[in-house]
């Protein structure tokens, strides 16, 4: 059940984000946003490949799910295309396991650091509730699919990123690490001949990328607002779909 979305926004990610978008994103307050340079396009082009090359990335995010404040902390393994996270809020804690095709939830408290307990429960554990991962049903499903789409087994095409409207937004820092903040192209299609203007509000994805190509933060526009996801630069376990219990 693995899969990769070609292009920075390609078949999966652009569709995922636009499905979850019910309003045009507000314009980025940065007045100096501009088209990426060749060097910046090269950096942006390796961001998803760097995730894949790392194998597994830890992540954390907070969002409202059906009006309930929800915290999600876990890992996404870009090599095996499996995500595993702890979901907490004003409800019983759950562990969440997903691929690009399905998502399962099981009652389970997180570890003290907020990450889900390992090992992943066996596939035949009766506590699992499994459904199709469908980005059209909720912003939460769209977010899971979008996080999974941030890894690819080859770099993106830097020239295409320039031609399709990738933007430099600003220089920034994440936990003391200098980063470049980009707005991804609105689509994979090159801009019309003679057109060079892309508004920051045209992109449903912004990413914070360190000098070595490591993605440290992403923002997705879902429903009527932005959802931020942090990707700490830390070790993480390899993940795989669980087998049946012994």
From TrEMBL:
The keyword Signal applies. Keywords: Signal. It comes from Protaetiibacter mangrovi. This is LppX_LprAFG lipoprotein. Residues 1-27 form the signal peptide. The keyword Signal applies. PROSITE patterns: PROKAR_LIPOPROTEIN.
């Amino acid at each position: 059940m693995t899969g990769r979305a070609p292009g920075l926004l390609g078949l999966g990610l652009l569709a995922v984000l636009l499905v979850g978008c019910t309003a045009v994103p507000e314009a980025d307050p940065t007045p100096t946003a501009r088209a990426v340079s060749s060097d910046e396009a090269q950096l942006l082009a390796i961001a998803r490949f760097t995730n894949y090359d790392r194998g597994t990335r830890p992540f954390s995010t907070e969002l409202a799910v059906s009006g309930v404040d929800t915290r999600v902390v876990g890992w996404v393994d870009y090599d095996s295309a499996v995500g595993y996270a702890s979901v907490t809020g004003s409800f019983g804690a759950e562990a969440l396991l997903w691929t690009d095709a399905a998502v399962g939830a099981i009652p389970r408290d997180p570890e003290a650091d907020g990450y889900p307990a390992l090992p992943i429960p066996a596939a035949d554990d009766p506590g699992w509730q499994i459904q199709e991962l469908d980005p059209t049903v909720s912003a939460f499903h769209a977010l899971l699919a979008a996080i999974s789409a941030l890894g690819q087994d080859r770099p993106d095409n830097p020239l295409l990123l320039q031609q399709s409207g990738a933007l430099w937004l600003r220089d920034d820092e994440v936990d003391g690490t200098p980063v470049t903040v980009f707005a991804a192209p609105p689509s994979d299609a090159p801009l019309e001949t003679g057109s060079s203007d892309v508004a920051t509000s045209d992109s449903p994805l912004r990413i914070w990328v360190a000098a070595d190509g490591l993605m440290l933060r992403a923002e997705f526009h879902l429903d009527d607002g932005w959802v931020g996801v942090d990707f700490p630069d830390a070790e993480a376990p390899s993940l795989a779909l669980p087998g049946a219990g012994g």
